[in-house]
Amino acid sequence: MGKLTRRAIVAAALAAPFAARAQEWPAGQMKFIVPFPAGGTLDAIARLVQPGLQQRLGTTIIIENRAGAAGSIGGAAVAKSPPDGRTWLFVFDTHATNPVTQPSLPYNSETDLDPVMLVGTAPNIIACQPSRPYQTLAELIAASKAKPGGFGFASAGTASLGHLTMLLLAKRSGAQWVHVAYKGAAPAVNDAIAGHIDLIIAATTVLNSQIEAKLLRPLAQTGSTRHPTLPDVPTLVESGFPDLVATPWWGLYAPGKTPRPMIEHFRAEMSAVLREENVTERINAMGLTIVASDPDYMRKFYTEQSRIWGQVVRDNGLSVDGG
């Protein structure tokens, strides 16, 4: 009996720190893991909501960029973190294809991470340097067929939604182009503006300012409808490719087994910050449409994105290492 009591005491002692942390939550320090370099859209969103969340939660939030392997390095760090409401993961659309492009992914996206919310969505834009002779998507496709070796296009990375969309578009149109991988959006945009690359596909969040400054010419967008910031740019559906809709997205996750009340509380505060007028205006100006969903919607959305785009990855034999 005494032996059992000692075990109970040891177990209680081990559980005490976690229980204390849970009791004081949300006070104390939190961490945002952004699995891409500083300066990108995920990083911008994290830094935009950071002050409001700190105020609403009464805590300090540290932003940590852990870039690499299409976001899976940061994802692994959060998957291995304690489920105590202290660590949160921002993800991009590659989160849905990483399990297919990386067979040795060191975590299970379905069980080791819990969805918090779909933060928002935005269409991709296919654009080129304004000096290029093609004015429409049809002209771009025709020109690519006439060029030996086809055109080179830049995207956010291997198996990103932009990359996969261009593969589908080539298959359906007969366009000739090859993927040119860049380490981040900034160098890709710079090369597109300079004309060093034939075209670029990237989200409105990346290209809107360059298009507004007339440094790039938009030829098509990939959403189901025209985005409010680009009302004159046709969709792929309008351009003759029925059902070819691809919407980049940004989401938020917690370590697996994080208590649902913590997730709901954090999601509610995050949603409130996203709806603050100054935050909403700045996010909309980036070309991103706020969704701020609940966790269940995020889970269903992720499952559907994995199903659709995972198949495209498999059909094309893509991997993060091999591209």
UniProtKB/TrEMBL annotation:
Signal is among the record's keywords: yes
A Pfam family matched in the record: TctC
Alphabetized UniProt keyword annotations: Signal
Leader peptide range in chain numbering: 1-22
Keyword Signal belongs to the record: yes
Family: Belongs to the UPF0065 (bug) family.
Protein's name in the database: ABC transporter substrate-binding protein
Organism: Bradyrhizobium centrolobii
Organismal lineage: Bacteria, Pseudomonadati, Pseudomonadota, Alphaproteobacteria, Hyphomicrobiales
